[in-house]
Design brief:
single chain; alpha/beta; TIM Barrel; 2 domains; two-stranded parallel ribbon
Length: about 400
Protein backbone atom coordinates (compact mmCIF):
# COMPACT_ATOMS: atom_id res chain seq x y z
CA UNK A 1 0.00 0.00 0.00
CA UNK A 2 1.59 3.26 -1.11
CA UNK A 3 0.82 6.12 1.25
CA UNK A 4 1.85 9.24 -0.61
CA UNK A 5 0.33 9.00 -4.08
CA UNK A 6 -3.04 9.52 -5.72
CA UNK A 7 -5.40 6.53 -5.75
CA UNK A 8 -4.12 3.67 -7.85
CA UNK A 9 -6.16 1.23 -9.86
CA UNK A 10 -5.60 -1.87 -7.80
CA UNK A 11 -6.47 -5.08 -9.55
CA UNK A 12 -8.50 -6.49 -6.70
CA UNK A 13 -7.87 -10.11 -5.99
CA UNK A 14 -11.39 -10.99 -5.10
CA UNK A 15 -13.35 -10.12 -8.23
CA UNK A 16 -14.53 -13.71 -8.39
CA UNK A 17 -13.92 -17.14 -6.89
CA UNK A 18 -11.54 -19.07 -9.11
CA UNK A 19 -11.30 -22.85 -9.20
CA UNK A 20 -7.89 -24.46 -8.80
CA UNK A 21 -6.06 -24.71 -12.10
CA UNK A 22 -3.53 -27.32 -13.16
CA UNK A 23 -0.01 -26.61 -12.02
CA UNK A 24 1.88 -26.30 -8.79
CA UNK A 25 0.76 -24.01 -5.98
CA UNK A 26 2.94 -25.76 -3.40
CA UNK A 27 5.54 -23.55 -1.78
CA UNK A 28 7.79 -23.90 1.25
CA UNK A 29 6.12 -22.91 4.48
CA UNK A 30 7.23 -19.47 5.59
CA UNK A 31 9.28 -19.73 8.76
CA UNK A 32 8.22 -18.65 12.21
CA UNK A 33 4.80 -17.19 12.90
CA UNK A 34 2.77 -17.17 9.69
CA UNK A 35 0.94 -14.01 10.79
CA UNK A 36 1.93 -10.39 10.93
CA UNK A 37 0.71 -6.90 10.22
CA UNK A 38 1.56 -3.98 7.98
CA UNK A 39 1.78 -0.85 10.13
CA UNK A 40 3.15 2.67 10.28
CA UNK A 41 3.76 4.83 7.28
CA UNK A 42 3.74 8.61 7.40
CA UNK A 43 1.37 10.26 7.94
CA UNK A 44 -0.62 7.28 9.24
CA UNK A 45 0.97 7.76 12.62
CA UNK A 46 3.05 10.50 14.16
CA UNK A 47 6.29 9.88 16.00
CA UNK A 48 4.25 9.74 19.20
CA UNK A 49 1.75 7.26 17.76
CA UNK A 50 4.40 5.07 16.16
CA UNK A 51 6.84 5.07 19.07
CA UNK A 52 10.48 4.12 18.58
CA UNK A 53 9.83 1.08 16.38
CA UNK A 54 7.77 2.67 13.62
CA UNK A 55 4.44 1.36 14.89
CA UNK A 56 5.30 -2.28 15.54
CA UNK A 57 4.49 -2.00 19.25
CA UNK A 58 1.72 0.59 19.20
CA UNK A 59 -0.13 -0.75 16.14
CA UNK A 60 0.60 -4.49 16.39
CA UNK A 61 2.10 -6.02 19.55
CA UNK A 62 -0.06 -4.07 21.99
CA UNK A 63 -3.16 -5.55 20.34
CA UNK A 64 -2.08 -9.22 20.13
CA UNK A 65 -1.37 -9.65 23.85
CA UNK A 66 2.22 -8.46 23.48
CA UNK A 67 3.10 -11.39 21.22
CA UNK A 68 6.27 -10.21 19.49
CA UNK A 69 6.44 -13.37 17.37
CA UNK A 70 3.98 -11.65 15.03
CA UNK A 71 5.87 -10.37 12.00
CA UNK A 72 5.92 -6.59 11.72
CA UNK A 73 6.28 -4.83 8.39
CA UNK A 74 6.41 -1.09 8.94
CA UNK A 75 6.22 1.16 5.90
CA UNK A 76 8.46 3.60 7.75
CA UNK A 77 10.68 1.10 9.57
CA UNK A 78 14.39 0.27 9.33
CA UNK A 79 13.64 -3.08 7.63
CA UNK A 80 11.85 -1.45 4.70
CA UNK A 81 13.57 0.08 1.65
CA UNK A 82 11.92 3.29 0.45
CA UNK A 83 12.57 4.77 -3.01
CA UNK A 84 13.91 8.13 -1.86
CA UNK A 85 16.46 7.02 0.75
CA UNK A 86 17.08 3.30 0.35
CA UNK A 87 20.82 3.69 -0.25
CA UNK A 88 21.07 4.96 3.34
CA UNK A 89 19.22 1.95 4.81
CA UNK A 90 21.84 -0.40 6.23
CA UNK A 91 20.54 -3.99 6.61
CA UNK A 92 22.58 -4.31 9.82
CA UNK A 93 20.03 -2.00 11.44
CA UNK A 94 17.22 -4.44 10.69
CA UNK A 95 16.78 -6.71 13.72
CA UNK A 96 13.75 -8.53 12.32
CA UNK A 97 13.90 -11.62 10.13
CA UNK A 98 12.89 -9.87 6.89
CA UNK A 99 14.24 -7.04 4.76
CA UNK A 100 11.39 -5.74 2.60
CA UNK A 101 12.18 -4.23 -0.78
CA UNK A 102 10.23 -1.24 -2.09
CA UNK A 103 6.48 -1.03 -1.56
CA UNK A 104 4.76 -0.83 -4.96
CA UNK A 105 7.64 0.89 -6.79
CA UNK A 106 6.30 3.27 -9.44
CA UNK A 107 9.36 3.32 -11.67
CA UNK A 108 9.00 -0.21 -12.94
CA UNK A 109 10.83 -3.49 -12.84
CA UNK A 110 13.94 -2.22 -14.60
CA UNK A 111 14.37 0.50 -11.98
CA UNK A 112 13.91 -2.02 -9.17
CA UNK A 113 16.48 -4.42 -10.64
CA UNK A 114 19.08 -1.70 -11.20
CA UNK A 115 18.44 -0.21 -7.77
CA UNK A 116 18.84 -3.61 -6.12
CA UNK A 117 22.13 -4.18 -7.95
CA UNK A 118 23.40 -0.85 -6.65
CA UNK A 119 22.24 -1.65 -3.14
CA UNK A 120 23.93 -5.07 -3.15
CA UNK A 121 27.14 -3.53 -4.44
CA UNK A 122 27.17 -1.14 -1.48
CA UNK A 123 25.87 -3.48 1.24
CA UNK A 124 26.95 -6.93 0.05
CA UNK A 125 28.84 -7.81 3.23
CA UNK A 126 26.03 -6.56 5.44
CA UNK A 127 23.44 -8.53 3.44
CA UNK A 128 25.55 -11.66 3.81
CA UNK A 129 25.67 -11.11 7.57
CA UNK A 130 21.91 -10.49 7.67
CA UNK A 131 21.21 -13.74 5.84
CA UNK A 132 23.69 -15.67 7.99
CA UNK A 133 21.61 -14.82 11.03
CA UNK A 134 18.48 -16.15 9.33
CA UNK A 135 17.28 -13.04 7.49
CA UNK A 136 15.18 -13.19 4.32
CA UNK A 137 15.10 -10.51 1.61
CA UNK A 138 11.80 -10.22 -0.24
CA UNK A 139 10.92 -9.38 -3.80
CA UNK A 140 9.61 -5.82 -4.11
CA UNK A 141 6.10 -5.53 -2.71
CA UNK A 142 4.26 -5.56 -6.02
CA UNK A 143 0.75 -4.23 -6.44
CA UNK A 144 -1.79 -6.87 -7.53
CA UNK A 145 -1.74 -8.55 -9.99
CA UNK A 146 1.79 -9.35 -8.92
CA UNK A 147 2.71 -12.95 -9.76
CA UNK A 148 4.11 -12.02 -13.18
CA UNK A 149 6.00 -9.07 -11.68
CA UNK A 150 7.74 -11.39 -9.22
CA UNK A 151 8.86 -13.56 -12.14
CA UNK A 152 10.01 -10.61 -14.26
CA UNK A 153 12.03 -9.09 -11.43
CA UNK A 154 13.82 -12.34 -10.62
CA UNK A 155 14.49 -13.21 -14.26
CA UNK A 156 15.79 -9.74 -15.13
CA UNK A 157 17.93 -9.69 -12.00
CA UNK A 158 19.37 -13.12 -12.86
CA UNK A 159 21.78 -15.05 -10.67
CA UNK A 160 22.33 -12.13 -8.32
CA UNK A 161 18.76 -12.69 -7.12
CA UNK A 162 18.22 -16.39 -7.81
CA UNK A 163 21.51 -18.01 -6.74
CA UNK A 164 21.41 -18.68 -2.99
CA UNK A 165 25.18 -18.20 -2.76
CA UNK A 166 24.93 -14.56 -3.87
CA UNK A 167 24.56 -11.66 -1.45
CA UNK A 168 21.61 -10.34 -3.45
CA UNK A 169 19.58 -13.54 -3.19
CA UNK A 170 15.83 -12.96 -2.97
CA UNK A 171 14.22 -15.36 -0.51
CA UNK A 172 10.47 -14.73 -0.84
CA UNK A 173 7.78 -14.03 -3.42
CA UNK A 174 5.52 -11.13 -2.44
CA UNK A 175 2.06 -9.81 -3.18
CA UNK A 176 0.09 -6.79 -1.98
CA UNK A 177 -3.51 -7.99 -2.07
CA UNK A 178 -6.87 -6.68 -0.93
CA UNK A 179 -10.23 -8.43 -0.98
CA UNK A 180 -12.80 -6.44 -2.92
CA UNK A 181 -15.62 -7.11 -0.44
CA UNK A 182 -16.02 -9.22 2.66
CA UNK A 183 -18.41 -11.59 0.90
CA UNK A 184 -15.93 -12.29 -1.92
CA UNK A 185 -12.82 -12.50 0.29
CA UNK A 186 -12.54 -16.28 0.15
CA UNK A 187 -12.74 -16.17 -3.63
CA UNK A 188 -10.07 -13.50 -3.59
CA UNK A 189 -7.77 -15.69 -1.52
CA UNK A 190 -8.34 -18.55 -3.97
CA UNK A 191 -7.47 -16.20 -6.85
CA UNK A 192 -4.23 -15.20 -5.14
CA UNK A 193 -3.23 -18.84 -4.74
CA UNK A 194 -4.49 -20.57 -7.85
CA UNK A 195 -4.29 -17.82 -10.47
CA UNK A 196 -2.11 -14.83 -9.71
CA UNK A 197 0.78 -16.59 -7.94
CA UNK A 198 0.45 -19.98 -9.64
CA UNK A 199 3.08 -19.44 -12.35
CA UNK A 200 5.50 -17.76 -9.94
CA UNK A 201 5.28 -20.58 -7.39
CA UNK A 202 5.77 -23.08 -10.20
CA UNK A 203 8.87 -21.32 -11.54
CA UNK A 204 10.34 -20.67 -8.09
CA UNK A 205 9.16 -23.61 -5.95
CA UNK A 206 11.82 -23.05 -3.27
CA UNK A 207 10.51 -19.60 -2.31
CA UNK A 208 7.81 -18.98 0.32
CA UNK A 209 5.07 -16.43 -0.35
CA UNK A 210 4.46 -13.32 1.75
CA UNK A 211 1.16 -11.46 1.43
CA UNK A 212 2.38 -8.08 2.64
CA UNK A 213 -1.01 -6.50 3.06
CA UNK A 214 -4.48 -8.06 3.26
CA UNK A 215 -7.85 -6.71 4.34
CA UNK A 216 -11.11 -5.67 2.66
CA UNK A 217 -10.73 -2.70 0.36
CA UNK A 218 -14.28 -1.43 -0.10
CA UNK A 219 -15.26 -1.79 3.53
CA UNK A 220 -16.09 0.56 6.36
CA UNK A 221 -17.42 -1.75 9.06
CA UNK A 222 -16.20 -4.53 11.29
CA UNK A 223 -18.15 -7.32 9.64
CA UNK A 224 -16.66 -7.04 6.14
CA UNK A 225 -13.14 -6.69 7.57
CA UNK A 226 -13.61 -9.75 9.76
CA UNK A 227 -14.73 -11.80 6.75
CA UNK A 228 -11.42 -11.07 5.02
CA UNK A 229 -9.55 -11.86 8.21
CA UNK A 230 -11.21 -15.29 8.29
CA UNK A 231 -10.55 -15.78 4.57
CA UNK A 232 -6.81 -15.36 5.22
CA UNK A 233 -6.90 -18.91 6.59
CA UNK A 234 -6.94 -20.19 3.00
CA UNK A 235 -3.47 -18.69 2.56
CA UNK A 236 -2.24 -19.58 6.03
CA UNK A 237 -3.35 -23.18 5.47
CA UNK A 238 -0.80 -23.60 2.68
CA UNK A 239 2.03 -21.94 4.60
CA UNK A 240 1.89 -18.44 3.19
CA UNK A 241 2.78 -15.60 5.54
CA UNK A 242 -0.05 -13.04 5.78
CA UNK A 243 0.31 -9.46 7.01
CA UNK A 244 -2.99 -7.89 8.01
CA UNK A 245 -3.23 -4.27 6.80
CA UNK A 246 -3.43 -2.65 10.23
CA UNK A 247 -2.63 0.97 9.52
CA UNK A 248 -4.62 3.89 8.14
CA UNK A 249 -5.61 4.18 4.51
CA UNK A 250 -3.72 7.28 3.41
CA UNK A 251 -4.04 8.46 -0.19
CA UNK A 252 -2.11 11.56 -1.22
CA UNK A 253 -1.19 12.05 2.47
CA UNK A 254 -4.86 12.26 3.45
CA UNK A 255 -5.76 9.52 5.96
CA UNK A 256 -9.17 10.70 7.04
CA UNK A 257 -11.42 12.48 4.52
CA UNK A 258 -12.71 9.54 2.48
CA UNK A 259 -10.68 6.35 2.92
CA UNK A 260 -11.61 3.24 0.93
CA UNK A 261 -11.32 1.10 4.04
CA UNK A 262 -11.84 1.58 7.77
CA UNK A 263 -12.13 -0.65 10.84
CA UNK A 264 -9.04 -2.63 9.80
CA UNK A 265 -6.77 -1.39 12.58
CA UNK A 266 -6.08 -3.98 15.25
CA UNK A 267 -7.28 -1.54 17.92
CA UNK A 268 -10.70 -1.29 16.21
CA UNK A 269 -13.60 -3.24 17.66
CA UNK A 270 -14.52 -6.38 15.74
CA UNK A 271 -18.02 -7.79 15.18
CA UNK A 272 -17.86 -10.25 18.09
CA UNK A 273 -17.28 -7.91 21.02
CA UNK A 274 -13.48 -8.13 20.94
CA UNK A 275 -10.92 -6.08 19.02
CA UNK A 276 -9.67 -6.94 15.55
CA UNK A 277 -6.29 -7.61 17.16
CA UNK A 278 -7.82 -10.20 19.45
CA UNK A 279 -9.59 -11.77 16.46
CA UNK A 280 -6.31 -11.91 14.54
CA UNK A 281 -4.56 -13.46 17.52
CA UNK A 282 -7.26 -16.16 17.81
CA UNK A 283 -6.90 -17.07 14.14
CA UNK A 284 -3.12 -17.06 14.17
CA UNK A 285 -2.69 -19.04 17.37
CA UNK A 286 -4.19 -22.03 15.54
CA UNK A 287 -1.07 -22.14 13.37
CA UNK A 288 2.10 -23.48 14.99
CA UNK A 289 5.14 -21.31 14.63
CA UNK A 290 7.04 -24.23 13.15
CA UNK A 291 5.83 -27.31 11.39
CA UNK A 292 2.89 -27.73 9.02
CA UNK A 293 -0.20 -25.60 9.10
CA UNK A 294 -3.07 -27.15 11.05
CA UNK A 295 -6.14 -28.67 9.54
CA UNK A 296 -7.60 -32.15 9.60
CA UNK A 297 -5.07 -34.25 11.47
CA UNK A 298 -3.46 -36.57 8.94
CA UNK A 299 -1.27 -39.42 10.01
CA UNK A 300 2.42 -38.67 10.31
CA UNK A 301 4.24 -38.51 7.02
CA UNK A 302 7.73 -39.73 6.28
CA UNK A 303 10.49 -37.21 6.76
CA UNK A 304 13.10 -36.34 4.17
CA UNK A 305 15.42 -39.10 3.15
CA UNK A 306 19.06 -38.46 4.02
CA UNK A 307 21.59 -38.90 1.29
CA UNK A 308 23.22 -36.98 -1.50
CA UNK A 309 26.82 -36.43 -2.40
CA UNK A 310 29.57 -34.48 -0.69
CA UNK A 311 31.07 -32.23 -3.34
CA UNK A 312 34.26 -30.26 -2.93
CA UNK A 313 32.56 -26.88 -2.42
CA UNK A 314 30.33 -28.08 0.44
CA UNK A 315 32.71 -27.44 3.32
CA UNK A 316 33.33 -23.84 2.29
CA UNK A 317 29.62 -23.29 1.67
CA UNK A 318 28.62 -24.80 5.00
CA UNK A 319 28.99 -21.54 6.94
CA UNK A 320 26.26 -20.03 4.78
CA UNK A 321 23.88 -22.90 4.10
CA UNK A 322 24.27 -25.33 7.03
CA UNK A 323 24.79 -23.09 10.02
CA UNK A 324 24.89 -24.82 13.39
CA UNK A 325 21.62 -24.33 15.22
CA UNK A 326 19.78 -23.29 12.07
CA UNK A 327 15.99 -23.38 11.77
CA UNK A 328 14.69 -26.12 9.44
CA UNK A 329 13.25 -24.86 6.19
CA UNK A 330 15.44 -21.75 6.10
CA UNK A 331 18.23 -20.90 3.70
CA UNK A 332 20.75 -21.61 6.48
CA UNK A 333 19.65 -25.23 6.83
CA UNK A 334 19.82 -26.61 3.29
CA UNK A 335 22.75 -29.06 3.13
CA UNK A 336 21.30 -31.57 5.58
CA UNK A 337 17.59 -31.03 4.94
CA UNK A 338 17.18 -34.30 3.04
CA UNK A 339 15.09 -32.43 0.43
CA UNK A 340 16.25 -33.99 -2.81
CA UNK A 341 14.48 -31.25 -4.79
CA UNK A 342 17.12 -28.86 -3.41
CA UNK A 343 20.42 -28.89 -5.30
CA UNK A 344 22.40 -28.16 -2.12
CA UNK A 345 20.88 -31.17 -0.35
CA UNK A 346 21.73 -33.33 -3.37
CA UNK A 347 25.29 -32.00 -3.57
CA UNK A 348 26.10 -31.89 0.16
CA UNK A 349 23.66 -34.17 2.00
CA UNK A 350 26.23 -36.97 2.10
CA UNK A 351 28.87 -34.95 3.93
CA UNK A 352 29.97 -36.20 7.33
CA UNK A 353 28.61 -33.18 9.17
CA UNK A 354 25.10 -34.25 8.09
CA UNK A 355 25.54 -37.61 9.83
CA UNK A 356 23.91 -37.82 13.20
CA UNK A 357 26.95 -39.61 14.70
CA UNK A 358 28.61 -36.21 15.15
CA UNK A 359 25.89 -35.11 17.60
CA UNK A 360 24.76 -36.31 21.06
CA UNK A 361 21.38 -37.72 22.07
CA UNK A 362 20.40 -36.04 25.32
CA UNK A 363 18.04 -37.78 27.76
CA UNK A 364 15.10 -35.46 27.07
CA UNK A 365 15.10 -36.01 23.29
CA UNK A 366 12.90 -39.11 23.10
CA UNK A 367 10.09 -37.52 25.10
CA UNK A 368 10.44 -34.25 23.20
CA UNK A 369 10.51 -35.88 19.75
CA UNK A 370 6.79 -35.56 18.95
CA UNK A 371 5.89 -32.75 21.36
CA UNK A 372 4.78 -30.55 18.46
CA UNK A 373 4.61 -30.80 14.66
CA UNK A 374 8.05 -30.57 13.06
CA UNK A 375 9.89 -31.21 16.33
CA UNK A 376 11.81 -34.23 15.06
CA UNK A 377 13.03 -32.25 12.06
CA UNK A 378 14.47 -29.71 14.48
CA UNK A 379 16.21 -32.54 16.36
CA UNK A 380 17.79 -34.05 13.26
CA UNK A 381 18.69 -31.10 11.05
CA UNK A 382 17.68 -27.89 12.78
CA UNK A 383 18.28 -25.79 15.84
CA UNK A 384 18.05 -28.74 18.28
CA UNK A 385 20.52 -30.90 16.38
CA UNK A 386 23.29 -30.03 18.82
CA UNK A 387 21.29 -31.80 21.58
CA UNK A 388 19.43 -34.55 19.72
CA UNK A 389 21.10 -35.06 16.33
CA UNK A 390 22.78 -38.26 17.53
CA UNK A 391 19.55 -40.09 18.37
CA UNK A 392 18.92 -43.28 16.43
CA UNK A 393 15.76 -41.92 14.83
CA UNK A 394 17.91 -39.27 13.13
CA UNK A 395 20.27 -41.84 11.67
CA UNK A 396 17.28 -43.76 10.29
CA UNK A 397 15.25 -40.85 9.09
CA UNK A 398 14.25 -42.46 5.82
CA UNK A 399 12.30 -45.08 7.78
CA UNK A 400 11.02 -42.74 10.46
CA UNK A 401 7.36 -41.76 10.45
CA UNK A 402 7.13 -38.13 11.51
CA UNK A 403 5.69 -34.77 10.65
CA UNK A 404 7.55 -32.74 8.10
CA UNK A 405 8.29 -29.10 8.41
Amino acid sequence: MNFNLKPKSFFLASIMAVAALPGSTATPRAKGNLCGAAVGGAPACSATDCGNDAGCTTMLYNHVEGDTSFNCFSYSGVCSLRPNDFMNTNPNNCKGDTLYLWDEPDDGIGWAVNSWRSYVQKYGAELNEFRNRGGVVTNPLWRSPCGTKNIQFLEQCGELCTDPTNNGYIGALVGNYFANTGDTAEGGADWNIHTDMREATTKFPDLPVYVTNWCTSNCKDADCQYKSMKASKKMLDIGWRVYWFATLDCVNKDCFSNPERTNQRLSDMGPNGITMGQEWKKICDAYPHSGPSPGPSPGPTPGPTPGGECKSFCESDRSQHQVEGCTPGTDQCRHCSGNMNDSLARDCGGCSYCHSATYPCESFCADDRFSEPGREARHCSGNMQKDCGGCNYCSNRSNSARSEL
